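ok so i was messing around last nite and threw this chain in just to see what happens. nothing serious, just curious
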Amino acid sequence: MTDREALAALTAEIVECRRCPRLVAWRERVALEKVKRFRDESYWGRPVPGFGDPDARVLLVGLAPAAHGGNRTGRVFTGDASGDFLFPAMHETGFTNRPVSRRAGDGLILTDAYVAAAVRCAPPANKPLPSERDHCAPYLARELTMLEAVRVVVALGSYAWDATFRAIASVTGDDPRPRPGFGHGAEAGAGGYRIVGSYHPSQQNTRTGRLTPTMLREVLARARELATG
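result:
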């Protein structure tokens, strides 16, 4: 298979996953009960695969789909406040053709970037269990092997930072010890990749000013610099 065919096959495998009973029950319950503002919409209610440019040199990794974001729209960081913060920054740094992401098939195109999550199902309280993290871990590792042009990983939050090092260790055997500490703008290397940290674009961070649009743009610009240098 070509890399694109392999990536498509992995996407098909991810969306059928039912390995974590707690996550399956939660994502399907949310999709059935909905919330008032989305009561007339059909929810995706399944695992959410990564998406973007198969030739990307930059991979962005988040924590997990939001219950009424990716779990509703079928695309990570799509249809929620985190995506509303992330995609304008990606657009301004040249990674997307538009600054908004509403749902799969809305015309959004990523260039030189691919976006995925450490955990592919929306978890209760946005807190996956360690076993659920471990069940999902091979998906990110396999994406790394298929996205052959990736040189830089932007970890959106400490959870994604840890998942990124785990994935790289799984693929390359390189697991730095002690593991570099997470921080906004932190940089580290492992397995031939450069890892750049950013605070997660959650409302908890963006509403308090812990993460500003300028801060996120600077991280994305640095990722592009590292990928092209």
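not much to say yet. The mean pLDDT is 97.
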